[in-house]
Give the backbone structure.
Amino acid sequence: MSRPMRVAVVGAGPAGIYASDLLIKSGTEVSIDLFERMPAPFGLIRYGVAPDHPRIKGIIKSLHNVLDKPELRLLGNIEIGKDISVDELREYYDAIVFATGATADRHMSIPGSDLPEFHGAGRFVGFYDGNPNFSRDWDLSAEEVAVIGVGNVALDIARILAKTADELKPTEIPDNVYENLSRNRAKVVHMFGRRGPAQAKFTPKELKELDESDTIEVIVDPEDIDYDAASEEARRSSKSQDLVCQTLEQYAIREPKGAPHKLYIHFLESPVEILGEDGHVVGIKTERMELTGDGNVRGTGEFTTFGAQAVYRAVGYRSDAVTGVPFDDDAAVIPNDGGHVLDLETNEPVEGLYTTGWIKRGPVGLIGNTKSDAKETTDMLLADWADGKLVEATRPEPDAVVQMLEERGIAVTTWDGWYRLDAAERAQGEAEGRERKKIVEWDEMVQHAGPEYEI
């Protein structure tokens, strides 16, 4: 064929960018448009990582290098299924890869889950990361807080709540987040995991960094440090998990350092009820669990009540459906065979549609998993193209889709626009001695990154 393969990748987070990079490096001539619903790229790295984790945000540098490549074009501020349908996309592209991730919170059905101070982790992360889709204000009047979950998101939430606003001021947080955190009254934060230390989903560095704040006293009950045969095997088979256990053991046996904010990490405590009074959260009730030898647990019938005026559930994210694409509501993923999107009724591949990342496999795994996941998907796509299995686009010219979006009056943000937005955020930060201060408002981001640049 005399032209490059035209591919639309939907979602400009790590999954979509890694898939694009693999296609570019494949040896097949490609022309890729990377569609993003937000005005800015980078997805979870921009809007899902705590602001005091610059090391993880450094991943943006490698993603930046991919987006600089001439084979790749960013088209932001576009919602697929609303601004342009999937069927319309087929006119312009030979293949479409969905990498839309997961930002909604998984529900947790226990008594009291309808109380107003029972929050999903994603909503709070969206607040403190300045995601324009989430609230600008947050009630931080609770002096005692509970966090359900023992993964990195739970750890981020607990740490943000236990730190002072001034500790976070040097980061990229916008003014509204700093002002809210300045009113934070939390003095005690409890984290709860229903299984043991060897089943915790922390990464070692993040767990160890928790203790670097002078304002946080990390407390682990020595009785919670318990391992069964499966737990010991988990430690032997994973250096990372063993380091997590070692750090938790050190927290359990050391002398207190006298920090003003107490952060308790509880294991073998399963939340069974959010306690309410007069329509508001006043505590959380847990059942003591015991390990069963295979890494699982069973209840002991012993219950404990902890005071809390707010409870955050960090039990996983959930993907949202894309209009016009098959979606498994129960698993909250696009049905697939490892790469091809599958029809819900026939279980056969839908011609030309592919998926990768959390929308493909659920919200599990780290960045490394996303890379290997993208390779599996792109290998399938490239094989289909080589075998002539794809129906060719009828309007493959790169200008055609842009012209259509302009005719619909959509203010498309671009990669050049990101450079302008990035410069504006850095300038705001520099004025206050910071590296960056994030711009929060959607329209303001579009003004910087869109076609009508008039700032």
About this structure: Residues 5-102+319-412 form a domain with the Rossmann fold fold (CATH 3.40.50.720). The first helix runs from residue 14 to 25. The chain has two domains: 5-102+319-412, 106-317.
